[in-house]
Automatic annotation (TrEMBL):
This is PDZ domain-containing protein. It comes from the Bacteria. One of its GO terms (molecular function) is serine-type endopeptidase activity. It comes from Roseisolibacter agri. The lineage of its organism: Bacteria, Pseudomonadati, Gemmatimonadota, Gemmatimonadia, Gemmatimonadales. The active site is at residues 143, 173, 254. Substrate binds at residues 87, 143, 173, 252-254. The chain crosses the membrane at residues 21-42. Coiled coil: none annotated. Residues 298-391 form the PDZ domain. Keywords: Hydrolase, Membrane, Protease, Repeat, Serine protease, Signal, Transmembrane, Transmembrane helix.
Amino acid sequence: MGRVRPLTTNLELLRMARLARVRLGVAVAFAFVCGVLFATAFDWTRHLGAQNGVRVAPVSAAQVDVSGGFARIAEQVTPAVVSIQTERDARRTARGGQDGRGRVPPGFEEFFRQFEERQQEPVQADGSGFIVSKDGYILTNNHVVGDADRVKVTLTDHREFSAKVVGGDPTTDVAVIKIEGSDLPSVVLGEDTTTRVGDWVVAVGNPLGLDFTVTAGIISAKGRSNRDLPGLLGGNYSISDFIQTDAAINPGNSGGPLLNSRGEVIGINSAIASRTGFYSGYGFAIPVSLARGVMEDLIKHGRVRAPVLGISIDEVSPEDAKVAGVERIRGVIVRGFNPAEGSPAEKAGLQAGDVIVAIDGREVDRVSTLQRVVRAHEPGETVGVDVMRYGKRQSYRVKLLEREETPTVARAAAPRVEPARGEAVKLGISVEPVSADFARETNLAAGDRGLRITDVSRSGPAFRLLVPSDVITDVMFPSPRKVRTTADLQNVLSGLKAGDVVSLRVYGTAEPVIGVRVVNVRVAQ
């Protein structure tokens, strides 16, 4: 899969798109009409299901509502879809000196002055949104308006409004803006949880500057997570329930609605998977069930009051299931705790490596299920959590914490890993004991000093699970023990055969994962 990209456009892309606009409407309509006439002439519409004596069960109009439905949806919804233009003032960074130019070679002063003036021009971008209330509240993506200094909204009837950013949530990429008006056209928010893979959907937005474009497709998949979409928008998103669609969306579609066959919003178009930055067949939308709650919090409180268990989680792998004693691969594994100290889940008794199999009596099959149930609660409420731990099912009561805004904190650069002759082991890694200098540079506590990983083989079983500068502190499974020397680790691994799984407690000392987590690795064949 190619890189996953946000869908906003910059000004140059907009100009290019408008210059390259190809009018395909007549050709598409002609092809569609010819197809219908061709099928009708041969009476295929009546006899296709009768071939080979196969009886086709009658399908109700409610199940397949596409005859004229796309046009009806477009007429119904497009007036409530808006084009969003943003401006961001250039952030000037001086290179030194009172005028910001520092030391400039003689004769180049005018050149650098003109260059810096061009740098100070506002940065413009385009996106989409949709009106959710007659008094002017609009849903869109946070990456469309999050850093904007000015926001302008244009409706299909060419009315223009200055918009105020009510608030945004970077972790879900949902934002709310407001325009002043009354009796404005608005959409109906539907229910994404009842949709199925294969359902028809419609996307409306402003791709490549082509205002109020309507495209159609189907739901290609549900429950896509950040793990499925590496590098999603370059952000720290906590969404594990993306709706995947093949409806054509492109840069500029960000923030526009994804609609079901009744014209109800089921998602916010947010990203595409593409190697080129343009449509390649896969688009992703934030489910409206998530966006609705974020919107209500932003309007009511000006911020998102998100309940959290205080855990770092992941989908369960075959190795995780084996260690936890889960019969079939399902549930959510607790990799670690967040915050590292004071996590409500850790206080309640959960441990890193536990696999959550139920919450409030509802079976948990994947991350999106867990997140959906937790989001239905308020911070301060208590939920029941069932986990599997080394083959035993245990139950806990966890008081939900309100998610704190995570400030951007400048971190010291991770210490450079010098080439070292750490001892290679069965996991495809090289290790060496943590040195006093490394422990001091990374602020490692005495209890977290074990074996530092110096290299990870790309062909080894630990590739993508462990990284150089990780520190292995304990073996958790099959036999718990502290790890301080290479001999400690080798003694454990020597008793394992190819295909066995070992569970490691690891302390990450560098981005992207800092802190304690549990990693389950299958011994190489």
